[in-house]
Give the backbone structure.
Amino acid sequence: MTKIPLNELLSVFDDIKTQNIHSDIQAKCTDFCWGTGDECIVLAANKKYFQQAINNSNVACIIAPEVIIQTDKAVITTNRFDDLFHYIHNTYFSTKELITHYVSPTASISENAVICPPVHIGHNTTICSGAYIGKNTVLNDDAYIAQNCTISTEGMLAKSINGIKKHITHYGSVIIGKGCYIHANSNISKGLFYSGKTLIGDYCHIGIGVNIAHDVVIGQSTEISGNSNIAGRSTIGSDVWIGANCTISNWVKIGDKAKVRIGSTVVCDIPEKADVSGNFAIKHTINLRKFIEDQAN
């Protein structure tokens, strides 16, 4: 349990008001309003998230602009609620061991790879020269990590804290399924919170130079072609094909067996079995028809 002294917060955020807090704040982590982190502090910027926080038994304390709904949970309000949440996240918590360290005797690891315990490296997994495997990475059996890949890195998330743009530290993990093949120079960032996981399903193939940001979830047997960028908290289904040089915006959901054509920029959810292309990506046959018409003219 982490103790967060209220007087220290007041020295930085002088407009803080509290409800149901009688001394220092006690919490184990920060998380989303719907998160699974035990005894967590969460940010609730609106009524929807405030209600989710109230309904979540894991939540110990809510940070919000105001007490939107009456509750017996601890609440801190301030005009700088976003600043305060990320200040607490960066100041009072730090990276910890989330898994038990294990390296299979059948794993093949280059002497030029960097391994940062604790990690779990499964049977017959290969890690090539120049690869970086950060803390709290799980590589399941038969995974292949090619040259110069970086796994469980800090993802990009910058927030203003007291008027200064700060990097928000990532504390979560990366789990890569069995039989996955991660091609050279790809990056997979770890989850933001302790409970956060970037998940790559079994038998996925990730092309050269792909970037997968924090808390992305990818189903099994999905292919992501080279130089694509998958932004934070996106969810990609199983048996999806994503062409080269695609960009998937944050929080987007792509359904099972969908196709995203080369060079597409996806900014909204894509249903299962859809075939999309373009910038911004729409149904591929519409783009194809427009291209043919333009060529004819």
The helical segments are 6-12, 47-55, 81-92, 284-296.
